[in-house]
Amino acid sequence: MPARSNCSDDDMSTQPKPGIYVPGGLQSAMSEARRRALFLDRDGVINVNHGYVHTIEQTEWVPGIFELCATARDAGYALVVVTNQAGIARGYYSESEFLDYTRWMHEEFAVRGAVILATIYCPHHPEAGLGALRIECGCRKPASGMFTVASDLFNLALGDSMMVGDKESDLLAASGAGVLRGFLVDSSKPEPLARVIEHLGRAANSTMERGT
Ligand SMILES: [Mg+2]
Ligand SMILES: [Zn+2]
């Protein structure tokens, strides 16, 4: 870790925090019951990674993503997006532009019966960030901060949760937080999510069998 004179103490309150978008507000996403989660990286898992996607026009859905999310919901998984957004750090788009886009994305999922609980995002970058966003944070994957924040806020059982990512850093971040299982996908291949959908479909069936 490089020494940084401006953050040499361990005061958690001064640590940079990830951003959080919850469609109905934080209160609506609280849960008494502990839930398992399916964590999703965004670029390369939800939308094809065309580089710093932040508009409707740039959005090309990864084949199978809505089926994956609906199957996960049926199997009792809360859906949480965890995404590095260096585009905010670099000034390519503002945080409010990102949030407008994220709101639209959540609505697209909701109308297809795959409600996403929250999007957690890291707006920092250690070298390319502008101003205060140029910082070594604990949330940019492969660090695990976004998973622990989500777990604390939404009462998630990380040891019973899964991650879908398109980079090793996604899976490292998840396993570092204690997430049970990671799937690495390649959205340039046909049916990139089929293996994950099949796995979750089996989970949904076994849940129903236990319930009868
Ligand atoms: Mg990605
Ligand atoms: Zn961060």
TrEMBL record:
GO molecular function annotations of the record: D-glycero-beta-D-manno-heptose 1,7-bisphosphate 7-phosphatase activity
UniProt xrefs under PANTHER family: D-GLYCERO-BETA-D-MANNO-HEPTOSE-1,7-BISPHOSPHATE 7-PHOSPHATASE (PTHR42891:SF1)
Matches recorded under CDD domains: HAD_HisB-N (cd07503)
Pfam families from the UniProt entry: Hydrolase_like
Keywords from the UniProt entry: Carbohydrate metabolism, Cytoplasm, Hydrolase, Metal-binding
First-listed, main subcellular location of the protein, grouped into a coarse class: cytoplasm
Family: Belongs to the GmhB family.
Protein name: D,D-heptose 1,7-bisphosphate phosphatase
Species in which this protein is naturally found: Rhodanobacter soli
InterPro entries for the chain: HAD-like_sf, HAD-SF_hydro_IIIA, HAD_sf, Heptose_bisP_phosphatase, Histidinol-phos
Compartmental location: Cytoplasm
